[in-house]
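Changelog entry

Holo records now carry the ligand SMILES as an explicit input line rather than a separate metadata file. Below, a converted record for adenosine-5'-triphosphate, shown in the new format.
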Amino acid sequence: MSVLQVNNLAKSFGKVTALNGVNMEVNEGEVFGFIGPNGAGKSTTIRVLLGILKATEGEAKIFGKDAWSEAVEIHKRIAYVPGDVNLWPNLTGGEVIDLFVKLRGGNKKSRREELLKKFDLDPSKKCGAYSKGNRQKVALVAAFSLDADLYILDEPTSGLDPLMEQVFQQCVMEAKRAGKSVLLSSHILSEVEKLCDRVGIIRQGKIIETGTLEELRHLTRTNLLVETKEPITHLHELKGIHDMEEKGRALSFQVDMEELGAVMKRVSQFGIVKLESTPPTLEDLFMRHYEGKGQTGTEAGGDPNGFYN
Amino acid sequence: MAFTINKGTGHLSRLIIRRDRIRIPLWVIGICSFTFMVPIAFKELYGSQEQRDVMAQTMENPAMIAMVGPADLSNYNLGVMTAHQMLLLTAVVVGLMSVLLVTRHTRGDEENGRVEMIRSLPVRRISTLNAVLLVNASTNILLAFLVGLGLYTLNIESMNIEGSLLYGASLGATGIFFVGITAVFGQLFESSRGVTGFSITVLLIVYIVRGIGDISNEVLSWISPLGWVTKTGVYDENNWWPIVGLIGVSIILFIIANYLHAIRDLEAGILPSRPGRKSASVILQNPIGLEFRLQRTGMISWAIGMFAIGASYGSVLGDLDSFFAGNDMMKQLFTAKEGYSVTMQFVSMIMMVMAILATVPAVMAMNKLYGEEKKGRSEHLLGRAVSRTRLMGSFLIISVINGFVMLSLAAIGLWTASVSVMEEPYSLGTVYGMGLIYYPAMLVMIGVAVLLIGYRPRITSFIWLYVVYSFIVLYMGGLFQFSEWIGKLSPFGHIPQIPLEDMTWMPIIMLISIAAAVTVVGFIGYNRRDMGR
Ligand SMILES: Nc1ncnc2c1ncn2[C@@H]1O[C@H](COP(=O)(O)OP(=O)(O)OP(=O)(O)O)[C@@H](O)[C@H]1O
Ligand SMILES: [Mg+2]
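Structure line, unchanged by the conversion:
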């Protein structure tokens, strides 16, 4: 069952087209990672989902309700954490958390104290005196204090230290164990890898890939390092070999997943002494998608300046 | 602990001057031109000694003395009159300038981490503070000379060189005193809000203590440094000792600030910041409560201000008829209407002015809705179970109540003071009714603000043009003989000036309908548009 559904969503600001037909779906009980380069349209999508922005075209539904016209009803069941939390400088963190909890949930029981301790946040300090990370914690404590059916998190950990990052991950896992759904936009790939069941990659206002991490990995290459009794010849004649490099007596290269079988067959003819294979890192995967498609042939690394365009 | 004016201080001073190369000149030019305009205007308006004596009479009541201080009213020449009416208030403005400029460069920079960067350069720790003191003390000295020489060159008979220089010196010394106060507070508190807040509080307390002292107890005036300013007797006895006193105290404050600066850590305050509430109070449970909490301080200040303005107008009602008899310009403003005293016409006019003034905090409260949106804080509410209608409605309620309270306080203030000075005072009902009748016009203004926020949020500040337009057209209208329709473009121009004019309900009903209509349309727009950032 899907809790969140986006169909052909488009949004433009005057002449700027921020979203250009976004389709995605988050199922009940899953953590959905939403990733893509800067300016790809993640925050814009999320703000449409929250009814803060009005879609130019297409529809966005949460719990089967329209994100724009039934926003208040939806918001009673969701928790939202933005990536850049601006608070009222003369209210304390404790006051803001209470207000936020109150505005969402009426009198339901709050886990505030427990979370304050976990996140190591002093609620008696004025928000004006908080660091960026501490302001972020205020929003996180407010969000996780009350149970929600869907958590919408837009780069929720920007500014958190690694320790707090872990506490955050625990919170998400707990929510997941309780059967809640999460939409998590993030640039921190290890976080995505650890938490997400499925990911959607957005680029220039379009979702270019969706699936489980396994499925996405399959679309990419694996790294091999082989050492053979006799020198390998004519390897580059095969399809799907990239970045070949001699390392002493060994040879290192990348292979497209679908060609792996053919390549191994050829290599084994030369008498394998040593074989190391490393799966593609998440970074490899994302780099390729962030760069854009159609560059599978020649090289894998790419120039670092072109990553985020 | 002496100040060390060394090379580092020099460099840092230049940096401050560079960063404030617009700000400081604006303050100085503003204060100077304001100071020079007043005696020129007085010369026009109160050219003869009789006119000034009438003015002196109006000044001889507790409310006025509490506001501007005492003076030798038997020798009310142009110089004495200028100094009496303007010196103290201008000194307060100069004090405010010092507070804002010094906070900006001490705690403000420290908060932003700028001082940290400077500390990493080869300058002495104490240099940052002393550069601020040096620049701001110099600014005030410059201001003193400019004002002094400027006033003298106006070439007004009673304004001699000694008096003029003393006038300037009084302003400069007050400024330097508040440089010292702010510098000390800058060491005590951790946040620049705290420093500004406490320094301005001292400014107000010193002003109020002097006011109470001037009308009741001489000793109190002696405690207050602003009391000293009124003791200078500019253009009269010309006492210089208060200046010496102020400078002396300032030097002590500078030394204290240096000492405190030396013994504290960067970004720490001598006084620990008081921990705030750990949890929200019963007020802070909904958008209205939140807005009330955020705007509370501002609203209280405006409330006190509106009451004080009402009271100060009320306090002159006693001898108004004789005052007007000798003033042609005022006569023109209040063309005599049969059957009603000039005083009654004056009250009616003042009510309109105060109603327009009371519109300012009300519209500010409404416009805050867009301010919050721009700072990305409306999202926190709209992202939770708060609808746009509820959010805008909360601001509207606060704004509408705010305007009502401000208008009421101004009218009540006027009445309260008038009772004590008039032989046959008006009833509270009469005065209050004369004020409250403008409320529908204020509602239209708030409605227009709502409309702009709903449809054209980027130009919400245009509402201020409309407010200023209303003020100029209606206040000055009589003077410039504008045609009637120009006044009718403002909602305030449609209100019948009771009791001078007959009460007619038609315009009132129309205004309320218009207010309701534009407000509703504004809500529709707000419900339809994107929330920006
Ligand atoms: N209010 C606005 N007016 C005009 N353009 C906008 C507005 N908001 C977003 N955009 C544009 O829409 C595009 C998508 O922005 P968005 O904030 O959704 O990106 P993002 O994926 O969240 O990026 P990041 O990773 O940096 O947070 C960008 O090109 C941005 O400049
Ligand atoms: Mg974003």
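Spot-checked after migration. Chain A touches chain B at residues 13, 47, 50-54, 71-72, 75-76, 80, 82, 84, 86-92, 94-96, 98-100, 102-104, 122-126, 128-129 (CB under 8 Å). Chain A is about 30% helix and 30% strand.
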